[in-house]
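Workshop exercise sheet. Pairs work together: one partner reads the sequence aloud, the other fills in the structure field after running the prediction. Swap roles for the next sheet.
Pair: D.N. / O.F.
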Amino acid sequence: MDTTISENQKNVASLMHLSTFSKYFIPFGNFIAPLLLWSFNKEKTFTDEHGRQAINFQLSVILYSIVIGLICLPFVLIYATNFVSLVEAIDHTVDHVSFQDVKNFSGFVVIFMIAALLLFGLFVIELYAVISATMSAAKGKSYTYPISISFIKTTILNSEDENSDEEINQSKNEHVS
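Structure field:
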């Protein structure tokens, strides 16, 4: 029995991970593109596992983004009344801004900076993880995303036992490496 992964499977798995970057061009492209590729290539164990991993990670990233927003929401609401008074104070005293006005504004700056740092950190982790997953898939290895929640159950595979009976029925035109 042949236990190697075909080039086609490696390319499709790599494309599943890379397709998550389509979110920068198409709304919800990070879900739609990998989901379409995964649903058309579920029959192969290797591509099935990589598709599940890619979709789980994208769902986790959106969940973490929502949680960051929800954590910041109460603080924004607390400072909202201060912000209105700050805008009024700046309007009436354009040439003279007091320390109290700046103190009220500092809460917004702190919240904005914390949220920006958390979201930037999440972006860097996502960028690193997607590129690492793409490279692993191109090499024929399995990959587990960091900080990923398993919404769709996955099974971690070894390179030796990734292929099952479907591989026996592999077409003659498909290149195997």
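Discussion prompt: The chain is about 65% helix and 0% strand. What would you look at next?
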